[in-house]
What we know:
alpha+beta, four-stranded antiparallel β-sheet
Amino acid sequence: MTSDNGGNFSCLKIYTNKKLRKAPSVKGRFIKAIEVDPQIFHDHADKKNNFTYLTLDKAELNRDQRISSNPTFIKIINNLVKQSKHLIVILNLFKLDNEYYAFIKYNAGLSDEGTLYK
């Protein structure tokens, strides 16, 4: 889904071969993406077992009412923290109808262009 400055949305299908095709317009209600402050994530190194893990600053997370008032967004963030092996530098959450999406980019070098999850 792309948007011009006037708020009009266009939908594109992205295929595994990276080709784009215009898709039928979405009739549902799109909620603007919420940018999650990356300062809520803290990375730690477990030198004994040679891996890194993340923790979440819940007090900082709760300051953003748009996130803390939505239990699904909280669940998504908690799952990302549990599964992530690198520090999260960009996390955008949004909802289209009853489906939730997350765009995430890790501090994992230049090779990480980000990933969109449904």
